[in-house]
Amino acid sequence: MTQFVRNAWYVAAWSTEIDDELRRFTILGDHVVMFRKTDGTVAALEDRCPHRLLPLSRGKRVGDTVQCGYHGLTFDCSGACVRVPGQANLPKSARVDAFPIVENHGIVWIWMGDPTRADPETVFDMPEFSDPNWAVHHGDALHLESHYLNVAENLVDPAHVSFVHPTTLGNAASENVPVHVQTEGEAIVAWRWIRDGEPIGFFKAFGGFTGNVDRWHYYYLYTPCTAVIDFGSIETERQCREEDRGDGVRIFALHFMTPVTETHTIDRWMHIRNAAIDDPEAATRMDAMFRTAFAEDKAILEAVQSEELRPQKRRPLRIAIDRGPLVYRKRINDLLELERTEDIASDPSMAIIYHD
User: Fold this and answer.
1) What is the pLDDT of residue 352?
2) Predicted TM-score of the model (pTM)
3) What pLDDT sits at residue 13?
4) What pLDDT, on a 0 to 100 scale, did the predictor assign at position 1?
5) Which end of the chain has fewer CB atoms within 10 angstroms, the N or the C?
6) Which CATH number characterizes residue 155's domain?
7) Rounded distance, CA 137 to CA 312, Å?
8) Could you confirm whether the keyword Oxidoreductase appears in this record (predicted)?
9) Based on the structure, what is the number of domains in the chain?
10) Are 139 and 96 members of one domain?
11) What is the DSSP letter of 344?
12) 78 inside domain
């Protein structure tokens, strides 16, 4: 039984990861071969020839088709077999899956489920991507030996920052500050403000703050695998209201999680900032700080994964800060249940007469 929501858009790659060559990616446990067609758009096919199962990525491009490297069966970008060397008839079963693709803002999105349900209008977007008052910068593709659910939960959890990132994204000032959680909208949101406190290491280095600041963390988690962290700082004496945090140094850290297998996740991260927007060196410095912080997350999450694979002696423990992650898991389970069943009750027959 699948553990992955398939009817959703996932980030397959940064645009820079895909070129004219046949390249294999593993997404939701499935191997996919991707390449740029002659018009520059991205094609994505099941990476397995239906004849003898050789990966098509081991074959070669022939124009905008892919030729299997074993017996030469050739497939177009719709997945249809267009050539079987030595015979004229093309069996209907000689085809591979083709996956819908949307590419924007330097990000390649893929739909791994029912292709008839793939709506490009539902691909994640933010107005800041196209706003000249913000700088957009792609980071890395961080590989974690961790289940994607644990990675995602970490990204709707402001409470861990004080303990996992004490020199970069957090400090002791936030340890006992309450976390607010809102779970009714499209995104699960967890947030808190730390008022009149010492700036964290990140904003000492990037924002240049020396005196006390008011700082915030807003964590937005969209099912199944997109997280946005809105964080920043402003001088305490400015008495910033929550809705005016754009007046401070504000950064959106975006995380696009791609489940590879049950225990392997790729976190492609990037940031959007409202400060030093014309300074490429600022992005370089921020990348270095983010890499330090995310390496701290990686160590924690991989240690948790290792322990989850061992026999458990007691029931799981949940505490107050787990509200967001618990709602997230319920949403994932609800989506999985929808994909496991076929609902024909929406058009009831006269066999059942409803009184409510």
Assistant:
1) 65
2) 0.91
3) 98
4) 41
5) C
6) 3.90.380.10
7) 41
8) yes
9) 2
10) no
11) -
12) yes
Distances (CA, A) of 72 to 66, 77, 203, 222: 9, 16, 57, 42
Same domain flag for 94 and 136: no
Of 284, 226, 290, nearest to 259 by C-alpha is: 226
- pLDDT score, position 178: 81
Ranges of residues in the chain with a pLDDT under 70 are 1-2, 166-176, 343-356
Eight-state DSSP code of residue 118: -
Q: How far apart (Å, rounded) are the C-alpha atoms in residues 262 and 156?
A: 20
Joined together, the tokens standing for residue 21 give: 């060559």
Q: Report the length, in residues, of the chain.
A: 356
| Domain membership flag for residue 48 | yes
Neighbours of 197 (CB within 10 A): 18
Return the amino acid letter for 57: S
**CB neighbourhood size of 119 (10 A):** 11
Q: What is the pLDDT of residue 356?
A: 62
pLDDT of residue 64: 97
Place of tokens 């700088």: 135
Token pair in block for residue 324: 């967001």
Domain residues for 210?
127-331
Both tokens of 134, joined, read 């913000």
pLDDT at 340: 87
Task: Read off the tokens for 51.
Answer: 């004849």
Instruction: Give domain status of residue 111, yes or no.
Output: yes
